[in-house]
Input
Amino acid sequence: MSLTTIGPDTAFENIPIIDISDARSTDTSKRYALAMEIRKACMEVGFFYVKGHGISQLIIDNAVSELHNFFSLPLEYKMKLENKKSPNFKGYSPLLSGNNDPNNKGDLQEGFEFGWEDPQLSVDAAREVDGVMAGANAWPHEDLPSFRPASLAYYHAAVDVGKSLFPLFALALDLSEDFFDDKTRHSAALMRMLHYPPQPPTEGDRVIGIGAHTDWECFTILLQEPGKMALQVQNTKQQWIDAPPIDGTLVINLGDQFARWTNDVFKSTVHRAINKSGKERYSIPLFFGTDYHVRLEPIASCVSTDRPSRYEVVTAGEYVKSRLAATYGHY
Ligand SMILES: O=C(O)CCC(=O)C(=O)O
Ligand SMILES: [Fe+2]
Output
């Protein structure tokens, strides 16, 4: 079936909530029904909340509390782990060091980035499969020893949720459920711990938490700290729709790799965050892509004579590398 003729005829005004407890159901019809819900959200919004994701509140609370501790360290401690010192850009990025929206002056956030740790794989071998971001993480072992285990516990739980979603995305695209299995062997899954200071009243909208952008991978799993509104998602009428934290849920949003793969049938939707809560705000996105050598070729059901291929075919790694260079000056 062609997916190119089904499309949204209205701009979305809210973001659906999908219960994914059936993601690994042994009942095929339940998995299929869930995939159809996901298909609708991917085609109409590019964002959805998930509940029933199975990550324990304890794992989430520990990660969030360690993340508060990390960002409370003195700047000089955090700067010891600055990502520019790392060959693969892991570690700490200070306030205003990134700029996601070229019209802006910098993102009002500081971050800590880490990825998959595979003790079996040497750094060189990892780089070969995972490209520029592969290799060791930079942890504040001495200054905050409990940060690594708490962060990795949440990371592994979130990666597991991500792995349960790929077969559903495949079904949603009328592909076999295992379509992404051989393309996601090495978990190109990067996690960023983020801290957004309150938006200063004196700043206009050219210095905000994170400027308007799309994500670069297949999809992102975002944990927002409860109670603080910041994330907004843009619809086709250029209206900003609020995506507040909702208890018990995570936000899933699609990124550019899926847009390329699906010839924009799945939407990589523009979003931004402005922390107007007056308090410190924290969030944890996990960017879930395919292995970096995988070519982002459009899926047959997403191309037609009326909708020819929109993107040049590149590998996932080439794409991410080009976006990193544009956003952080990493080459
Ligand atoms: O902090 C948020 O809510 C959004 C973060 C985000 O969009 C990103 O890091 O790509
Ligand atoms: Fe994003």
Notes: The first helix runs from residue 28 to 44. The longest strand covers residues 189-196. Helices lie at 28-44, 57-72, 75-79, 123-130, 147-172, 256-261, 316-328. The chain has a mean pLDDT of 90.
